[in-house]
Write a structure and sequence with these properties.
The structure holds two protein chains of two kinds. In chain A, about 80% of the residues lie in helices and about 0% in strands. By secondary structure, chain A is mainly α. Chain A has two domains: about 35 residues; about 210 residues, Orthogonal Bundle (MetI-like fold), CATH 1.10.3720.10. Chain A is globular. Among the domains of chain B are: about 160 residues, Rossmann fold (3-Layer(aba) Sandwich); about 80 residues, OB fold (Dihydrolipoamide Acetyltransferase, E2P). Chain B contains nine helices and 17 strands. A six-stranded mixed beta sheet of chain B has the order 6-7-8-3-9-10, sandwiched between helices. In chain B, strand 4 and strand 5 form a beta hairpin. In chain B, helix 3 crosses helix 4, helix 3 runs parallel beside helix 5 and helix 4 crosses helix 5. Chain B starts with a helix and ends in a 9-residue tail after the last strand. Classes of the chains: A mainly alpha, B alpha+beta. At the A-B interface, helix 8 and helix 9 of A face strand 6, helix 3 and helix 5 of B.
Chain lengths: ~270, ~350
């Protein structure tokens, strides 16, 4: 240790120590989860399993309910993202481009859904949903998820739209494109980074949303996170780990595919008041 | 017999005259009638009437906020006007959106779409017009050649300099064969040297392609260099429309006289208004000699600047007041700053109203 200390110099040495702690705290649980998911024999306070195998993977993947919850969650996330784009992009564009009365208020109103305790909002929604027969329906769960992601879906693309120069849109009109063609050929491609970041956030948010899905969706709609509750309660840790890893896969794939768009810039523009 | 020849000559002359009048009428490209566009009580343009002829380069010139861009954007369809008519090629285009108007617009900056190559930028409008692929290619190539940007088809706008981007923007407008080209301070984001080069280039392109152009600028030098006619604007109205020479020599209003070129203000006789004199119409004489001219004034030389063939002499004429004079080098003695000097004027500028 002493040898290392003098080899690296004081500053570098502490930097490395700090880095090691960081890795341990942030990635330790992930690695632990990954190893547990491939456990064969495992007893509770042990850190690593005694033997390894695909036993628990087989167990999860042979459970029909769990597998169907995976497809359910994926379909749900896709529908939520698509609908959210459809609803929020026009709003984002309007906030970015038009100077109407109460613009700031409209913008801030999207914060409300994220400012109150979630469970309170869900309960209030549940009361309304009972009356209009949306409890336990796919549509009901979609609505809950959209309420959750609206703020990001409006704010982040709005920041990107505001960054598209009005002359670029006007040039398109000038050469003969109507307003709609201009939006899809000029404005939207130029605002891609923000739209992609917001869509990613919405998709992943929908994949991992549990509270609202449980309250509104059960007993008919089973999503992965809501099933995860059941697994953790009724099976060994190792089963939960497998399921958690499965839940992680889409996030990893999306982050890798779209990593070039994931800049802090697109995010921060959306949150500038 | 001679009478008959004379008579037929007379008729022929008459016919010629009629033809010429017809030509004059045919040659009207754009007519703006009673255009009003107010943004609020004091910002906007009011009751504008303007005629642009075929093949003409007309400049809207004025300080910022005078309404020149408002008129240009109204012609392009980007401003909804409150009243008035815009007639292009004999057709009323007042109610048409920009995409339906046969005008081509180039803005000060951010004209090009950064996610498309130069070729794709040029192609966008042609595709909307359902032009065939081979035809598109040849049109784009020849247009890029015209603005001397051939070979840049595969580049992205971000790879070009500001001047090059503006050339491409002009080419993109021209490739659609607009009936009228609208330029909104297209060179003002460029540095001085490139700006001058672009000016010459635009003049060449206009002549080669036989274009009619409405040009907006706040730079009077640019306007003088480019324009067939200039509409000088201030506070939402057109003060005077004339050729650059007429504007310089015979400004109708004091605003125009001061805005176009350099202008000195000399004290008039008792009860008279200030006398407006161009720097080149000032005569300087050493203090002892009396300078020739109606009135002789005295001042102190502040600075002498070398401008090639001419010298610019700045003279203090009183507290916080100075004038400048352009003097030929051979007429200047061994004057130095600080010296007292006599001056007078050869020619004054008279305006119709103040």
């Amino acid at each position: 240790m002493k040898r290392l200390y003098y080899l690296l110099g004081k500053n570098k040495f502490w930097e490395y120590i700090l880095f090691a702690v960081f890795i341990l705290v942030f990635y330790g649980p992930l690695v632990n989860m990954l190893t547990l998911s491939f456990a064969g024999k495992y007893n509770y306070p042990d850190v690593v399993p005694k033997t390894y195998g695909l036993k628990w993977w087989q167990f999860i993947l042979s459970n029909k309910n769990l597998v169907s919850s995976i497809t359910q969650s994926l379909i749900l996330a896709i529908v939520v993202t698509a609908l959210s784009l459809l609803i929020c992009l026009p709003a984002a564009y309007a906030i970015a481009r038009f100077q109407f009365k109460g613009r700031t208020l409209v913008r801030l109103s999207f914060l409300l859904t994220n400012a109150f305790p979630k469970m309170g909002i869900y309960t209030a929604m549940a009361v309304v949903f009972y009356k209009i027969h949306l409890m336990g329906t796919f549509t009901g769960v979609v609505l809950v998820h959209i309420v959750n992601t609206m703020m990001f879906m409006v704010w982040i693309p709005s920041g990107s739209f505001a960054n598209v120069h009005i002359q670029q849109e006007e040039s398109a009109r000038d050469v003969g494109a109507g307003p709609i063609r201009t939006f899809f050929h000029i404005t939207m491609p130029l605002a891609w980074p923000g739209i992609i970041v917001a869509s990613l956030y919405t998709f992943l948010g929908s994949m991992e949303e549990a509270q609202g899905s449980l309250l509104i969706g059960l007993p008919n709609v089973h999503t992965m996170p809501s099933e995860l509750y059941g697994i953790i309660m009724s099976y060994a840790d190792t089963a939960g780990s497998v399921f958690a890893v499965i839940l992680l896969i889409p996030a990893l794939i999306l982050l890798i595919v779209f990593r070039k768009y994931l800049s802090g810039e697109a995010m921060s523009k959306g949150f500038r008041m | 017999m001679t009478e008959i020849t004379e008579l037929s000559d007379g008729i022929r002359g008459l016919l010629h005259a009629v033809e010429r009048v017809d030509e004059m009428e045919d040659s009207i490209k754009l007519e703006i009638k009673n255009l009003t566009k107010m943004f609020n009580d004091h910002e906007g343009v009011h009751d504008i009437n303007l005629t642009v002829h075929n093949g003409e380069l007309l400049t809207l010139l004025g300080p910022s906020g005078c309404g020149k861009t408002t008129i240009l954007r109204a012609i392009g369809g980007f401003n909804k006007i409150q009243s008035g008519e815009i007639i292009l090629d004999g057709k009323d285009i007042t109610a048409l959106p920009p995409e339906k108007r046969p005008t081509g617009m180039v803005f000060q900056s951010y004209n090009l779409w950064p996610h498309m190559t130069i070729y794709e930028n040029m192609e966008f409008g042609l595709k909307l017009r359902k032009t065939g692929k081979a035809e598109r290619r040849s049109m784009i190539e020849s247009m890029l050649k015209l603005v001397r940007m051939d070979g840049s088809e595969k580049k992205y706008p971000g790879q070009l300099s500001g001047g090059q981007q503006q050339r491409v923007a002009i080419a993109r407008a021209l490739v659609l064969k607009p009936s009228l080209l609208l330029l909104d301070e297209p060179f003002s984001a460029l540095d001085a040297k490139i700006r001058a080069a672009m000016r010459d280039e635009l003049k060449r392109i206009q002549q080669e392609a036989g274009l009619t152009i409405v040009f907006v600028t706040h730079d009077q030098e640019e306007a003088m260099a480019l324009s067939d006619r200039i509409a000088v604007m201030s506070r939402g109205i057109i003060q005077q429309i004339d050729t650059p020479t007429e504007l310089y020599d015979h400004p109708q209003k004091e605003f125009v006289a001061r805005f176009i070129g350099d202008m000195n203000e000399l004290e008039g006789g008792t009860g008279e208004k200030a006398i407006l004199v161009r720097p080149e119409d000032i005569t300087l004489r050493p203090d002892e000699e009396k300078a020739p001219g109606a009135l002789t004034y005295q001042g102190r030389i502040i600075d002498i600047m070398m401008l090639g063939h001419y010298l610019k002499v700045i003279i203090s004429t009183g507290k916080d007041k100075e004038i400048s004079a352009f003097v030929k080098r051979e007429e200047v003695g061994d004057w130095t700053p600080g010296e007292t000097i006599a001056y007078s004027w050869r020619k004054r500028v008279t305006t119709i109203e103040g």
